[in-house]
Amino acid sequence: MIVFFDELLGFLGLFHPLLVHLPIGILLLAFVMAIRTRFKGGDMYLPAIKLSLFLGTIAAIVAALSGYLLSRNGGYEEDVLSYHKWLGIAVAISGLWLWFLYRKESSGAFRFWLFFILVLLIGVTGHYGGTLTHGKGYFVEAMPVALKKLFKAEEDKEEVFIVQNAQEAEAYKGIIQPILKQRCQSCHGQRKQEGGLALDTKENLLKGGENGTVLNANDSKKSELYARLVLPEGHKKRMPPKGRTPITADQIKLIAWWIDQGANFDKKVHEIPQTEEIAHLLKKLETGEKEESAVLYADLPAAPSLPKDKVDAWQAKGIKIIQVARDNNFVLVNAINYPQFNDKDLQELLAIKDNIVQLKLGNTAVTDLAFSTLSAMPILSRLHLENTKISDAGLSQLKGLSKLTYLNLTGTKVTSKGLSKLNELPSLKNLYLYKTLNQEVAAIKQLNAKIKADTGNYSLPFIETDTIRF
Amino acid sequence: MKDLNKLIKEAQQFELQAVTRRHFLKDCVAGIGGIALGSLLTSCNGWGQSKSAEKLDLNALNPLVPKPPHFPGKAKSVIYLHMAGAPSQLELFDYKPALQKLHNQPCPESLLAGKKFAFIRGVPKMLGPQATFKQYGASGAWVSDHLPHFSKVVDEVSFLKAVHTDQFNHGPAQLFMHTGSARLGRPSIGSWVTYGLGSENSNLPGFVVLTSGGKTPDAGKSVWGSGFLPSVYQGVQCRSKGDPVLYIADPEGMGRDMKRDLIDAINNVNKTEYDTFRDPETLSRIAQYEMAYKMQVAVPEVMDINNEPAYIHELYGTEPGKESFANNCLLARKLVEQGVRFVQLFDWGWDSHGTNPADSIDLGFKNKCREIDRPMTALIMDLKQRGLLEETLVVWGGEFGRTPMQENRDNSDMPFLGRDHHTDAYTIWMAGGGVRNGISYGQTDDIGFAGVEGRSSVHDVHATMLHLLGFDHEKFTYDFQGRPFRLTDVEGELIQAII
Asked: Which SUPFAM superfamilies match (chain B) (predicted)?
């Protein structure tokens, strides 16, 4: 019988997301009426306000109770849950208080401002409720890109863990556990155990989740801990799920290696056999060298949808607007069939500046005037300007492009003067300078070490065997 | 004759019976409902069919319009260098000192038990590597002295040392390598890729084929065919001599304007045809006329290597006007630079059985190595200096490997050194397009007979290539004869080590 009640209460808890909307609606309606009463005068609405407050408060209490029942089912992040809970209770209490004030017909500013606070409380409570369901940061994540920038500070805090001496570290404690902590434990940890699975301790790892063990020593392919990570993109069982920071390819390989070599919890790294590749990956952990994420552009904010009429107009001209993948709105713009592409055309592209990740403007008519436009393209990652009229004058304006990793300046008039400006590009990795006026080594030396500059001009000297025929 | 008349009569009768008054009324009800619904829907949002009837929107109809893959691909184009005839991995990349020690000794029975070879009969002798090997680059890749130039770029390359196939004859093996099936009828990988991604340059075909070595591959044009995909996705074979594409020049007296009018007229007729029957092949035809018109200008330009500077010719070892692998490598670079999606090269003449000097391991094979060494190295360097290698996947390989045994055709001694076809192990390398640098994946046993670690099947290679282009090979399908088809059929695993 007790079990039955326990289950029933848990079941009733499921109605919380439905019930919460009642107090929100009713109390907001009451507030609208209160505003009218305050600014237009009269007491026409007073009975309605009183009734709404009464019903809204009752609804708030019911919602809070059901919320409590739901929280018993577990699986929520505790600090957020407690904010949500106390705020919810505050809503119910202030609703009750207001109802008393209106019933006593105590007029004046106080009850109106209390009402205002109540509405604020409802908003904040709702936000925390959303956080509980959708995960932290969901709100900012879904914002239009322009708004998102205001909240920029919260982003990009991805911690990189550095291992002092990877070979001497304990394989589990030093390498594997930090990866699990970074990638998995926000859902499978102490606070929250999705699917009944926690990955925070050896015991929990061995225990597995609702569907049994996740670790099958010596066989990564039969271990859910690994197998889920390599499911195809978009598979609903793939981990980490869509919307979460993806795990890197290197980390996946390290997990597979650890499992295949016996999933040992005590051994040190050097005691476990390693292939060359694994040894290399371990070495990378020591420098904290950031690898490319397994999926291109996964670290960029979601792009808004494309304006169809504009895109059609560009396409008709011969400017190719090509979506880079089906599940996002990032585009590659290629002007290969529109060589007369000029600075003005580029300005028009600003309409989709939050979509453009790659711009292929080689052999077009763009000039140095293009750079001020280019610098306003926040997620531009690959820029082709080969064989154009650009020169040093423009390069300094590129520094705002924080995502730019690839820059092709082949066959342009850039010199060492302009190149030094490129050091201000934080992500730039590959720079192509073939057939530029400047190929002197000194100019390349002044570049950051992380920029790989390719000046080309390769040759294959003639060797005797080239012409020997048998 | 009498029987035939009876049959026809029967058929007419059947047809009449099929549409009874009741049927007619029933059809009308559904039909009228449909019409009403249609007008309801279109009147609501205003974008009904009214527009489409007006002007032929070639952009929307064009089957080669660029399309997004499943996820962002690191490779945007592919250059596939196929050495038709299958080069010996044992003289190029798979260094087997133990095989040298066994040279001229009879092959142990255990290796031959249950195996079938194309030409080897009885007990052949082992044949030691006919080359000297050294390790090169930071990655320490083994390369033989047959490829002195290539050894300089090994750090850009990743090797698959234990690829295996299940076909030991050229035709089926080439088909398998390019279409994922040893039987005819499947689309080639170039067609799949062009079908999936379209073409970035609307003036050039998306899939171009270039051949050298005097012959086309044994499997014929099916290795670049489109199988059951619309034929617009098949490879366009360009010639290295004369007009790159046959009849590309206008006949005398035919101006560009007149040509344009002609093609517009034909396309309009075809458009009407398409609106009636909805046959995708009609779209292919429209696209091909349109493309042919544009190609008349664009192709001769891109296929002309005369304008390349002298140092580029020196780098590749090209001689304009000749049919050669070198010319094709340079063309491949030019085509990719112009946004062509898939460039397929075939170089014929690698079938080193040892029946005559030209196909012997110690003579003709070395000449073939000379012919490809400089150009393929130049191709990698040239792509790299132009910033193209990052997004261009270069694949090199044959259709199978060669035996560690010397061929003894029909159990007789051969006049020259040669190796038979071998399915259990061969080497393929890939560069650029998101492939890791300097990896050597997979290992064969001490004599290079079979893979012992990190084996990759042909399907694995395809799955990996598609992955680099942004496709999940399990979801990349085309419906044909009632079921979705894949390039990798029901197999294929990503070769994680090189991506």
From this structure: Alkaline phosphatase-like
